[in-house]
Specification:
The protein has eleven helices and no strands. The protein has helices at residues 43-59, 99-109, 164-167, 169-185, 190-200, 210-217, 223-246, 270-282, 288-298, 302-317, 321-324. It is elongated and about 60 Å long. The protein binds a DNA duplex through residues 5, 9-11, 13-26, 68, 71, 122, 124, 128-134, 155, 208-212, 214-215, 218, 220-222, 224-225, 228, 258, 262-268, 285, 287-288, 303-304, 306-308, 310-311, 313-314, 317. Its main location: nucleus.
DNA sequence: ATGCATGAGAC
DNA sequence: TCTCATGCATA
């Protein structure tokens, strides 16, 4: 009873909107599709872009989120406040400063017509089940089978205790560590914690996934997210320890077996991923047309490519507190 | 632990 | 359309 991934992945959320409107960074410093417009571009340019970026990547590996961990290698972006603009130029045009010209060329490539073929969703046929983020309490969704309740009545959980303390990255890091240790001591898995949160019945707090708990512990969530989750997890921890102490009732988990619907995860092959990374190095925020173009080139669904870019950007913004704090 | 995905809400 | 918070699926 200590392994996860085997059962009841609840999917309710907690809507702790901690920093729901951090809407930041949005001005690109890159200009696409400027100037050029005849789309007679050849693949050679793309190939070169990839090659260049690839070389660049391998050289200054720290700049990119190469693999698993390289992600947070660089400094965090918006630690200080809830809305400092990250969007730092990630690309590492080292020796060669061809990015701009390449961009022009690249953008010209599809300059005109986009087949917008894959307008349907992604390659995943599995219908998108209801993934509800936050719904009003009385809301009842259409999925009778794997129904999962425990909504969050509130859309915004203003972390009442917003003392400078809570925002302190070092404090968060310390807490995350403490949390993990004590959680393990309690013999509770990350998934269990996520499920148990709903049992706390705190206003606006539903369950969370193993992923999120894991990310909290490893500090791989955004700063705001960490801050929003902290008080909740802290509440759970105290509650759990108290319960364990009293040894009166340690079971209050509602395990809800999940039914059929399985989502198939798209797997982008290494070569394609490599290309995407190359493109990303050149332009982390390609336009819709750009995306369509790239998708076509790599023979991927446009949506897959779009999402990939979104996720890459998100990764870059992710915070690794230990980097800024732990010293 | 992490890759790809969804969806609400902000632009 | 993008960002953000989160999740399912999987390595």
């Amino acid at each position: 009873m200590s392994s996860y991934g085997l059962y009841h992945p609840h999917q309710t959320l907690t809507s702790l909107g901690g920093g729901r409107d951090i809407s930041n960074a949005d001005h690109d410093q890159y200009l696409w599709g400027k100037g050029n417009f005849f789309g007679g571009l050849d693949d050679g340019l793309l190939a070169r872009a990839e090659a260049l970026a690839a070389v660049d990547i391998s050289k200054s590996s720290t700049q990119h989120m190469m693999k698993h961990d390289g992600l947070y290698g660089h400094t965090a972006t918006d630690l200080g406040g809830n809305n400092s603009r990250p969007h730092m130029p990630i690309h590492s045009h080292g020796p060669f400063g061809p990015t701009d010209s390449m961009l022009d060329q690249l953008s010209a490539n599809t300059g005109m017509q986009l087949p917008m073929m894959g307008e349907h969703h992604n390659n995943v046929p599995t219908s998108h089940h209801n993934h509800h983020q936050m719904y009003p309490p009385m809301y009842s969704h259409p999925n009778p089978m794997n129904n999962h309740h425990s909504f969050s009545p509130h859309h915004q959980i203003v972390h009442h205790s917003m003392h400078d303390n809570d925002c302190d990255p070092r404090e968060l890091e310390a807490f995350a560590e403490r949390f993990k240790q004590r959680r393990i001591k309690l013999g509770v898995t990350q998934a269990d914690v996520g499920t148990a949160l709903a049992n706390l019945k705190l206003p606006g707090v539903g369950s969370l996934s193993q992923s999120t708990i894991c990310r909290f512990e490893s500090l791989t969530l955004s700063h705001n997210n960490m801050i929003a989750l902290k008080p909740i997890l802290q509440a759970w921890l105290e509650d759990a320890e108290k319960a364990a102490r009293e040894k009166k009732e340690a079971e209050q988990n509602g395990l809800i077996p999940l039914s059929d619907k399985k989502r198939k995860r798209t797997s982008i092959a290494a070569p394609e991923k490599r290309s995407l990374e190359a493109y990303f190095a050149v332009q982390p925020r390609p336009s819709g047309e750009k995306i369509a173009q790239i998708a076509e080139k790599l023979d991927l669904k446009k949506n897959v490519v779009r999402v990939w870019f979104c996720n890459q950007r998100q990764k870059q913004k992710r915070l690794k507190f230990s980097a800024v704090t732990a010293h």
